[in-house]
Design brief:
The chain contains 4 helices and 4 strands; from the N terminus they run αβαααβββ. The chain has 106 residues and is α+β, with helices and mostly antiparallel strands. The chain has a single domain, classed as DNA polymerase, domain 1. The chain has a two-stranded parallel sheet. Helix 1 packs parallel to helix 4 and helix 2 packs across helix 3. The chain is elongated.
Length: 106
């Protein structure tokens, strides 16, 4: 059953851009996963991996089956800011400039 759900999901995913999973609330993610044919509780597992375990990829989420992780990776991205510049003051304090995926910096 999971394979048939994932197969139908992969067809519809190919026509859409990947979604930054960190931009979604838990309820929004839950809705998107249910649309994909996954169970609602997967949203809690994904949130736990991202925010408690600091997972940077779906492959790290070992309590989710490989086909489901592949389906997640096909539809979503886990966006991380990049360190663009670091300044170090004489007392060792560091200032970081981060760039986001939309090319804005913070």
């Amino acid at each position: 059953m999971v394979r048939s759900v994932l197969k139908s999901c992969s067809k519809s995913i190919m026509n859409t851009a990947k979604i930054n999973i960190k931009a979604l609330t838990r309820d929004e993610l839950q809705g998107k996963l249910v649309e994909q044919g996954l169970k609602k509780y997967r949203a809690d597992q994904v949130f736990d991996w991202i925010y408690a375990h600091h997972a940077g990829s779906f492959e790290e989420m070992t309590n989710i089956s490989r086909p489901e992780r592949e389906a997640l990776a096909a539809r979503f991205v886990i966006s991380m800011p990049n360190i663009t510049h670091v300044e170090v003051s004489s007392d060792g304090t560091r200032k970081f400039l981060f760039s986001l995926e939309d090319n804005h910096t913070i």
